[in-house]
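Protein modeling request. Please complete all fields; requests missing the sequence field cannot be processed.
Requester role: graduate student
Desired output: 3D structure, token encoding
Chains: 1
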Amino acid sequence: MKGSQEDEPDGQAPTTVAEDLIRQISESVTVRSVVSRRAGRGGLTRPAPERPAALPEPPLAPPQPAGAAPALEPVAPVAAPAAPPVSLPEAPAFSPPAPLELPVPRAPGPAEPATELFPAPVPPRPVLAVFCFHAPDCAIGRYVARTLPLLAARQTRVHLFSRQPFNLEAKGLRTHVLGGGDSADLQADAQQFTQASLAAFEAECGAESAGVTALGFEWVSVNLLLELERARQVGILLSLHSLEKQRSDMAGELSRAIQDIEVAGLAKAQAVLIHNAATGDEAGNLLPQCKDRLVPVAEAFPVDDFCSGLDAGAVKARFQVGPIDPTVLFVGELDDRHGPDIIMKAAHDVLKNQPQVRFVFVGDGAQLWPLRVHARYLQLEHAVRVVGHLEGKALHELLEAADIVCLPSREATEDWPILAGWAAKHPVLATHNVGGQLIQHEQDGVLFYPSENSCVWGIERVLRDEELRERVRQNGHQKLLARYGWGQAAAQLEELMCKR
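Delivered output (500 residues):
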């Protein structure tokens, strides 16, 4: 070791193999950092070049003999691969967003319709001006009160001009009370009504009279209608419940003057509404040219006759029935076809479980006396009433006072008792023969078979089930109003207006 140190040049420290390796690695790292700094100059941010593969480690020099100076070779700097110049795209200049472009309708081709920029205007609602000289509680007044609100609900604007208030509230319906009383001179009253109606019409509908239809009732409105048709080109409809020839013997001068007015109305009216067949026959005889313009009115079932709000107990008392006794009512011919004997046979079993029930038979026919004998033989006279023929108000009141309407027909019979029971808001029991096409079982009525046991089942079913009883009575009444109510009359008026 001493001899080796003396061989080194002066001023230099002795070196070893390890020191040479450390120096070579340090120089290599220095070269790499210089190259990296030179590549990073330029001030622009470039994407990092792909990292080169790791450089191989320099091999270790073989050991040299002691005392010999190692042969050192300078380490060549490692040149990094030159990356191609990166061209950065220029940032686009800021520009505001383009405005939203609406589609522009193009010109229509030869086979396609023109495109409308704006929807077509909605046509105005039709207008009906109604002139009623009569009181609200008469047949004409009831037709007006029932029909006009329903017509207004069908998107028709309605103006009612009347002498007395009708107290109608409906959207699209306006009432105008003109006043005026009854005097001994009927013609003078009619003339006063005509003048007041013309003035009120001018104030309310004068600006749009070209699109108005006028409806008048009876002869007292004819002169008014003729004046509106002449001065305002208004379409006119005449409604007749009767003619003067049906009301008088035509012996007086007033009757003949009224008939002349009626003839003038029949000749000019676009349509003549006829409320009964006899009036239609008389109108055709009076003016044969008007026969093709006679329109039978779509009459509604007279619901008001069975919903008067009377005292049911007082009506039952007329037939020796208690005010709270459940009353089963039969209405129809007393014959084998209508089957009243089926109810009589069923009454005995019903009374075993429901002793308060009472049975009332209304009608006439071959079974009238056999039914009375049968009631006595079965000791049912305390619970059965065979009252015979009834009609008019007495029949309507009994139907309103009863609790159940039962129709045990063996064959198809008339629907009137079913409709009357619905009008009075009663549960209706009927056999499939009479009610099968009209009644929906346990929805608006109860169907049974024309036999004693089935009749007992039906009566007890209704008496014991309050929920069922309430459902069928309400649904039956609503079905009557929908199918046989005043809606048909309102639709008829609307159709006549459209035919102008």
